[in-house]
Amino acid sequence: MVETLPLRAALVGNPNCGKTSLFNQLTGSRQKVANYAGVTVERKEGRLTTPAGRAVRLLDLPGAYSLEATSPDEAVTRDVCAGRYRGEAAPELLICVLDATNLRLHLRFGLEVCRLGRPTIIVLNMLDAAEKEGLKIDLPRLAAELGTPVVGVVAIRKNGAADLLALLDNPPVMPPVLREADGGDIHATVRRLLTECVTRPAVASEALEDRLDRWVLHPVWGLVILLALMFVMFQAVFSWAQPPMDAIESGMTAFGELIRSLLPAGLIRSLLVDGILAGAGTVVVFLPQILILFLWILVLEESGYLPRAAFLLDRVMASAGLSGRSFIPLLSSFACAVPGIMATRTIQNPRDRLVTILIAPLMTCSARLPVYALLISAFIPKRLVGGVFNQQGLVLFGLYMVGIGSGLAVAWAMKRREVTTEHPLLMELPAYRLPSLRDLVLGLWQRAVIFLSRVGTIIVTLSVLLWALSSFPAPPAGATGAPIDYSLAGRLGHLMLPLFAPIGFTWQICVALIPGLAAREVAVSALATVYAVGGSETDAASQLTPILSSQWSLATALSLLAWYVYAPQCFATLAVIRRETGGWKVVAQTAGYLFGLAYLASFLTWRIALALGWGPS
Amino acid sequence: MIEALIVGLLVVACGLYWLGRVAPSATRGLWRGFGRTLQVIHAPSSLQMAVAGRATAAPQGGCGGCKGCDKNGGCH
């Protein structure tokens, strides 16, 4: 029989047990998954239809170690399960996902869920990994003990959840009937279930994972490995990306030439070449570098290395007054501060959470990469240091380190008078996994789509507006200066100059800072548009780098780099801070201190560079 | 003249796009006004409906080109 109303079901379980993978498998979604705890911090909703045609509305809830919530993300799970979540009816069915390779930990939560008194299905995920480890799990016996259906799935494998789908055709309608034989002691029940339902092989030798962990988690060698990985990552961003970047640049130049040859000189040609192509084309060139950076991040995420890095850096974080729990949110901020700030929901201590939110924008997000790469390409010679290291990669690595160091320094300053109350870091280390090629390709594809849609919307529209501001009004008859000096943008840039001249900025940079408030990479397209309109006959999409290196001093470039390490030029970040903190106060504090730091850092950089003789000649 | 008109329309469209992002309530008012104008001039009903949809659209979540947001505006 086909039901008319969809069944409301919710996926619950410990962090990193594969709920989101199962959610993606069942609903066809592409929510982010990674091999560490705390990726999902709020409820996600999807729909699916069972083989018999039954509609199911499925919720994916944040992972929780217990229904006694200790952090905001766990509170979401607790409230939804209890039917207390605002605007969300209690689910009719709970699908409790347990990691089959780690039942000692996960069964405890499973028992808590069974005791809620709601219809429940227990799903043992990663059955393939359990079998590889030699574990034999008696599913019928476990189902009998828990008094509710138990099915096995492999959430990352195609059709790996077929048994669960079949069960959803006729889901249980009665709550589990647990066999209570241990006087209510949940730990005793877990021990009994493991003894009765799970057969383990005798451990013959140290597993590969343990041997790897002896190196990766070593207090000295572990840090060396971490630093080496990050170092190679930034080298790769510059070394590997060059051929595709050159190809895209040549394509843009050829396209510009084509437009020039097809259209007569006039407003439309100027808009297309000097506005859209110069603006958007300059940013598109950086796509390969962004994808290489994300390839590294995805590989590290999938492999299970990141939580180990968090464990290693717990002591460093503690020296700044934070716990290792802040590591994952800060690490997410290297992709984009928005998910990073949302991931702070896993932090229990409100003060620690606030400090992590405040310093998250200091982690170098991918939007800064085009700005850094443009200035580094223009001012840092491409040569090998010590015969091995790409000098441009070294400077990029240095900029990332300055961001991290500044974040820790700010956290230390904010927390130096406080007694740390956050619990010591207790983190489940996931099994190492070989990253799946399909997931990597999909992840990179999603990143490319996000980047290109930003170019196609934010950057193209701002380039058009900036082109108009840079082109109108036209210079009066008999004017001798450059036409752009008489435009609105030119006048605005000159108006702002007294404020930014002390830090070495030109009026063109001042103009680029305004649209750059929307998103950092817009500054690159804005500079290209301003110089294209100003230079008129040049193709700024391909020539911005030589234009900058000939018109700016090294001191100006370094000052602008220092500005971009700190300046919170991203509307989305400020908006998510407002949402996560529930008011404008923290937004004002964040913007205030970051703009202040940006100005101070640029001023110091400019003055030091002048003293070293790197100023305008 | 036609060239200036095309460029002007493009610039206005980009301006409206940003107005919609920065101040969505202001754009909804504009769309409502445009919708009324379309009614007065008896524009095709499909166009009127499309504009009416714009005027009543709820504010969207998400940042930039990201479509990973749910109805509460959450994202990954």
Automatic annotation (TrEMBL), chain B:
Q: What domain of life?
A: Bacteria
Protein name, UniProt field: Chemotaxis protein
Under Pfam families, the record lists: DUF6587
Q: Which organism is it from?
A: Acetobacter conturbans
Concerning InterPro entries, the annotation shows: DUF6587
